[in-house]
Amino acid sequence: MSGTGKPSVHPAAQQIARLYHEHAAVWHELRDTSLFERPWLDAFRAALPVEGAARILDLGCGSGLPVAAEMIVRGHRITGLDAAPAIVASARARFPAQEWRVGDMRVPALHGPFDGIIAWHSFFHLPPDDQRGMFGTFARLAAPRAALIFTSGPAGGEAIGRFQGEALYHASLDPEEYRALLSAHGFVVLDHRAEDPACGGATVWLAKRA
């Protein structure tokens, strides 16, 4: 417990950007690009408020593979944001016609509105209080009826994995709190599955701005 009365956050939470930056090439080699996420991405696209090219924000975009690449192939316009400069450089090299920025999703220097927002396997690297604060950011950047998709953990708490021999931070809120935050910020949950076996065990939220 910290001196402020708030639960302390594991120090690995401050190392996410550095880890991905320093090991960008390894991360790219390890990232499964078989698009097991396709059913969820199809549902996300179906929830977009416009026909044809939509403006999509990818928070924690990585190298653009495979999630942003799937959106690009489908004709959408991507703005990608990631805190690891080496990974953003990789995305720029692969997809130079799209917009890629280095930055922190918690304080994005971006101007919406976006027709869709993706935070796939990125949002869950934020500490719980930062995740709570992100819902105001989602609402600020989302166009009316915009689609939002993100992954979380199945239950509240921290989980510390390993990447290149170092601690890799993950955190989650309880599902009931995610639902309450989405509702409070004008989003309706379209679908939610915990540890979806058809999606590599990902816990996925799909919502739509009212």
Key descriptive features of the protein:
210 residues, alpha/beta, two-stranded antiparallel ribbon, transferase, methyltransferase
Describe the structure.
It comes from Paracoccus cavernae. Its EC number is 2.1.-.-. This protein has 210 residues and is α/β, with parallel strands linked by helices. The chain has seven helices and nine strands. Helix content is 31%, strand content 30%. The strands form two sheets. The protein has a seven-stranded mixed sheet, sandwiched between helices. Strands 6-7 form a two-stranded antiparallel ribbon.
CATH architecture: 3-Layer(aba) Sandwich
- Tell me the count of domains: 1
| Category by helix and strand content | alpha/beta
CATH fold title? Rossmann fold
Mean pLDDT metric: 95
Give a topology summary.
Blueprint: H1 16-22, H2 24-30, H3 38-47, E1 55-59, H4 67-73, E2 77-82, H5 85-94, E3 99-102, E4 114-119, H6 128-141, E5 142-152, E6 157-163, E7 166-172, H7 175-184, E8 187-196, E9 202-209
Parallel strand pairs: 1-2, 1-4, 2-3, 4-5
Antiparallel strand pairs: 5-9, 6-7, 8-9
GO molecular function: methyltransferase activity
Pfam family, one: Methyltransf_25
Organism: Paracoccus cavernae
Brief rundown of the structure:
The protein has 210 residues and is of the alpha/beta class. The chain contains seven helices and nine strands, in the order αααβαβαββαβββαββ.
